Amino acid sequence: MPDALLNMTGLDAHYGDFQALYGVDMHIDAGEVLAIIGANGAGKTTLMRAITGLLKSGPGQISHSGVDIGGLRADEIAMRGIAMVPEGRQLFPSLSVKENLMIGAQVGRNGPWSLDAVYDLFPILEERRDQQSTSLSGGQQQMVAIGRALMANPDLILFDEISLGLAPVIIKDIYKALPGIIGQGMSAIIVEQDITKALSVSSRVYCLQEGRVSLEGGSDTVSREDISRAYFGIE
Amino acid sequence: MDWLNAVVQGTLLGGLYALFAAGLSLIFGVMRLVNIAHGDLIVLAAYLGLTVTTATGMHPLLALVLVVPVMAAIGYALQRGLLNQTLGDDLLPPLLVTFGLSVIIQNALLEGYTADPQKLSAGALETASFGLGGLTLGVLPALTFAIAVVVIWGLQRVFYHTPLGRAFRAVSDNQDIAQLMGLNRRHIFGLAMALALAVTAVAGILLGIRTSFDPSIGGGRLIFGFEAVIIGGLGNLWGTLAGGVILGVAQTVGAKIDPGWQILSGHIAFLIILAVRPNGLFPRISA
Predict the structure, then answer these.
(1) Can you give the residue range of the structural domain that contains B73?
(2) Is the pLDDT of residue A70 over 80?
(3) Is pLDDT of A230 > 90?
(4) For the ranges A86-100, A189-203, B39-53, B106-120, which has the lowest average pLDDT?
(5) How do residues A161-180 score in pLDDT, each as one tens digit?
(6) DSSP codes, B205-270
(7) CATH of region A4-91+154-232
(8) How far is CA B16 from the centre of its chain?
(9) Which stretch of DSSP H or E encloses residue B33?
(10) Interface residues from chain B to A (CB-CB < 8 Å)
(11) B174-211: per-residue pLDDT in tens?
């Protein structure tokens, strides 16, 4: 698939002797929003770590804009324009809110996102810019984590369980902001346990089960039965 | 007046200890690396100063323009070439490797410069003094203290007001996520070690002007640096200066009581603070 922004072919991933992904084939096109669902331990976060280079993958297993990024270090992959909002937010505690956002821009890519643009999206962050990042509420921290990833002006942004541990009303707010974030030609991969949420914002969905792709389809065409079979592995 | 004199002289001496300690504090803060070879690197810097001054006839303080960049380059190469390989979840490998490095540096210095005590000659600066409110202060100790304050202020500035400092703190907080920001941690660690050894170069030259040195004295300087860091609190640079001053004052006051007690009283002050405040006086990280 030469047109795919990101292409994974036969992707394996290991933690020591433990194999977490088995020959995953997946692709995402430019401007597409992809949902990845799956139960705990299905390999969703492992997949994110492999794409961003935090987990080494073999040469030829992942390509970005036609270039093999399988053996690259995480910082080299970040420089190519892949950013992640990590699970659990993982802000830098010794950096202020503003510094957390600024460090996202460290990769030095040009694009629509700047400090002002992030403050426009989440005005509360401008008010809190000089606070210690970990002194914010969970929802506000998530805004910082999203803003930090946007500051890199990526062409692909990964959202890893962004609703985990947040109040439902906050989750609603964040999902309301999502189209404005990814409507600018950016591709996104959304990893969620909340299937309804994931399907509502995406155009295509993959389901992972025990490290393998168990379902692929359009977000509005896959049936509930298909999903529960792919999700739980029961007929 | 004698006691006040001891306290003031100890404070000034503390500046030198703070310079010994600043590099240690910095690299521990950024990469959790305890550098056992730090004292020997200070002595190495003093010997580099000796080589530069004898080869060119420069004043030792002027020799800093050569020794500082050379030590920084050594630091970067050392970190990228050797120490990065030892970093991981385990604190032991870097300890062992830097211990080995300490032995290697000491023996290389013995081979290259022999065991004879050496000194950097700074001319009139060594003995110059000035009166202040009834006390007589040496120009060199006062200058050393001033340099220590400026160096620590500068490091603090770099740490909290520059993109490089932001990168240092981010990598220190969370290496994985810092890499997602496009930071190559190996390079950042190299820069941190370069900065630490640049400070070490200043400390080494000032040490060499103040006292005579030989290849074996690194261990003692390491202990003073360690004690200053621990007293001040790990990862807090102004605390490190305070730690150096406390150590210096304890030593000079101890020496005032009995000249044989100088080193001992410094260690006792350190032990007391360690017993009362195990995290040091101004800890940055609570653990």
Answers:
(1) 9-117+139-276
(2) yes
(3) no
(4) A189-203
(5) 988 888 888 888 888 888 88
(6) HHHHHHS-B-TTTHHHHHHHHHHHHHHH-TT-HHHHHHHHHHHHHHHHHHHHH-GGGHHHHHHHHH
(7) 3.40.50.300
(8) 8
(9) none
(10) 163, 166-167, 169-170, 172-174, 176-185
(11) 999 999 999 999 999 999 999 999 999 999 999 999 99
Q: Is the pLDDT of residue A41 over 90?
A: no
For residue A63, the SS3 value is strand
Residues 167..226 of A with a Cβ closer than 8 Å to B: which? none
Number of compact structural domains in chain B: 1
Mean pLDDT for chain A overall: 90
Q: What is the pLDDT of residue B108?
A: 97
pLDDT at B287 over 50: no
Q: What is the CATH number of the domain that holds B111?
A: 1.10.3470
> What is the per-residue pLDDT across B122-132, written as a single tens digit (0 to 9) for each?
989 989 999 98
The reported pLDDT for the residue numbered A163 is: 86
Q: List chain B residues with CB under 8 Å of A54.
A: 176, 179-180
Q: Between B170, B183, B184, which is nearest A95 by CB?
A: B170
Q: Is residue A234 over pLDDT 80?
A: no
C-alpha span between B114 and B108 (Å, rounded): 9
Evaluate if residue A7 carries a pLDDT over 80. Answer: yes
Any domain includes B131: no
How far apart are the CA of B188 and the nearest CA of chain A, in angstroms?
A: 12
Query: How would you class B238 by CB atoms within 10 Å of its CB: exposed for 0-12, middle for 13-18, buried for 19 or more?
Result: middle
Name B123's Cβ contacts closer than 8 Å, sequence gap at least 6: B59
Q: B167 to chain A: which residues are within 8 Å by CB?
A: 103, 106
What's residue A2's pLDDT? 52
Q: Are A57 and A50 a contacting pair, CB within 8 Å? A: yes
Chain B CB contacts of A102 under 8 Å are 163, 166
Sheet containing A33-38: order of strands? A82-85, A156-160, A187-192, A33-38, A204-209, A212-218
| Nearest CA among A210, A226, A202, A152 for reference residue A36 | A202
Kindly list the residues from chain A whose CB atom is less than 8 angstroms away from the CB atom of residue B185: 75
A76 contacts on B by Cβ (under 8 Å): 184
Residue B48 lies in a domain: yes
Considering only CB atoms, B182 lies closest to which of A54, A102, A106, namely A106
**B contacts of A93 (beta carbons < 8 Å):** 173
Cβ pairs bridging A and B (under 8 Å): 65
- Count CB atoms within 10 A of the CB of residue A47: 28
Is the ipTM, as predicted for this complex, more than 0.85? yes
Largest CA distance in chain B: 59
Say whether B181 and A152 touch across the interface (CB within 8 A): yes
Of B167, B169, B182, the CB nearest to A78: B182
User: Residue B130 domain-assigned?
Assistant: no
* Res. B240: pLDDT tops 50: yes
Q: Would you say residue B175 lies in a domain?
A: yes
Q: Are B44 and B215 within 8 A, CB to CB?
A: no
Say yes or no to pLDDT of A3 above 70: no
